[in-house]
Amino acid sequence: MGEAGFGLRLATLEVSFQRFRVPPSGLLEALPSSLGALPVGLTRHGTMLLPLDAEEAFWIGASDLPGSLANHLRIEAQLRDGTALSLTTPDVTVPPDHRFFGFPRPDGLMAALSRSETEAASGLKSLRISVRKHASTMARSAQAVIHVVGYKIYAERTQRSEPDPLDPDAQFSRVLLP
């Protein structure tokens, strides 16, 4: 119980969750700098949890191990109001590496991936990440459902410590992490 790591691996795909302060409007024009990776923890029932404070948002980095065959990636989000949205329409092929930092809007902006209710979107409840790998005629797949919860719920259900509070001085100087 409580095994945690900074991100997760599905087949040969590595997925990370990079946090930043959610803008008041909940809208983004470009990929923000990471203020650190968020852990993914397991409950005793095997449920994956991603801790996120109400003032935080995150972007998702997806990269493949060197020399791997292509992965077809799909990321779907469930909002608190019951709305289901896709971050990858159509499926995305990895490699190359990809970053997903919000829900596309008609005005060209992105609604941040956040638990907060904003004008841009209802709060995020969970993510379903699916990977399909093709190797000649054989297809393999992997899937994970990650529930987005507050720090306190994360700590209680995973028996792990709460993440450190968001540190605005922890910026990684625009270096993109996987």
> Mean of the pLDDT scores?
84
The largest sheet is:
8 strands, mixed
Return the structural class: mainly beta
- Spell the H/E element sequence: EEEEEEEEEEEEEEEEH
- Give the overall shape: globular
The parts where pLDDT drops under 50 for at least 5 residues are: 173-178
The fraction of residues in strands falls at 35-45%
Beta-strand segment tally: 16
Radius of gyration from the CA trace?
A: 16 Å
Domain tally: 1
Name the quaternary structure.
single chain
Distance between the termini: 26 Å
- What share of residues is helical? under 10%
Number of helices: 1
Please summarize what this structure is.
With 178 residues, the chain is mainly beta. It has one helix at 151-158, and strands at 4-5, 8-10, 13-21, 27-28, 40-42, 48-51, 56-64, 71-79, 84-86, 92-94, 98-100, 103-104, 110-111, 113-114, 124-135, 138-149.
Explain the overall architecture.
The protein has 178 residues and is mainly beta. It has one domain (4-162). Helices cover 4% and strands 45% of the residues. The protein has one helix spanning 151-158; strands at residues 4-5, 8-10, 13-21, 27-28, 40-42, 48-51, 56-64, 71-79, 84-86, 92-94, 98-100, 103-104, 110-111, 113-114, 124-135, 138-149.
Q: Mind sketching the topology for me?
A:
Blueprint: E1 4-5, E2 8-10, E3 13-21, E4 27-28, E5 40-42, E6 48-51, E7 56-64, E8 71-79, E9 84-86, E10 92-94, E11 98-100, E12 103-104, E13 110-111, E14 113-114, E15 124-135, E16 138-149, H1 151-158
Parallel strand pairs: 6-16
Antiparallel strand pairs: 1-5, 2-3, 3-7, 4-13, 5-6, 7-11, 7-14, 8-9, 8-10, 8-15, 12-13, 15-16
